[in-house]
Amino acid sequence: MFRSVGVSAEGAAEMADVLIASDLRGNDSHGVSNALRHYIQGYLDGGPPTARPTFRVVRDGPAAAVVDADGALGIHVGTFAMNLAIEKAKEYGVGSVAVRNAGHFG
Fold first, then answer.
1. How many CB atoms are located within 10 Å of the residue 95 CB?
2. Are 29 and 55 spatial neighbours (Cβ–Cβ below 8 Å)?
3. Is residue 96 one of the residues assigned to a domain?
4. DSSP per-residue letters across 37-77
5. In a domain, 105, yes or no
6. Would residue 22 count as lying in a domain?
7. What is the domain extent for residue 26?
8. Confidence tier at 14 by pLDDT (50, 70, 90)
9. How far apart are CA 79 and CA 73, in angstroms?
10. CB 101 within 8 A of CB 69
């Protein structure tokens, strides 16, 4: 469904994984069974969210960063931000990444 509204294959796969994991953990309100229809409707209504966002690191320090999500859903930019935090934590012992200009993280 994400692919049908213009989301990249990688982004669609990552978001589907998040929604399925949410359902499998018993958090139905934020999974495929409930949230997906709201997210898809947002794309169909012309956004937000942005289907093909460009994530940008707008502030970057040794152990912290700020990412601009370009209007993406939180579940779309979340993996990018998390991976950046992990990279920083591996090098500095801690990694903190804030995300701005994003929709619902669920």
1. 20
2. no
3. yes
4. HHHHHHHHTT-SSPSS---EEEEE-SSEEEEE-TT--HHHH
5. no
6. yes
7. 3-100
8. very high
9. 11
10. yes
How much is the mean pLDDT over the chain?
A: 95
Amino acid present at 78: G
Residue 77 has pLDDT above 90, yes or no: yes
Residue 95, both tokens: 């990694």
What is the number of structural domains in the chain?
A: 1
Task: Say how far apart CA 25 and CA 72 lie, in whole Å.
Answer: 24
What are residue 64's DSSP bridge partners? Answer: 96
Chain position carrying tokens 């969210």? 49
Identify whether 106 is part of a domain: no
How does strand 96-100 pair with strand 56-60?
unpaired
Quick check: pTM over 0.85?
Answer: yes
Cβ–Cβ < 8 Å for 51, 12 = no
Question: Distance between CA atoms of 19 and 28, rounded to whole angstroms?
Answer: 9
| Pairwise CA distance, residues 32 & 63, whole Å | 34
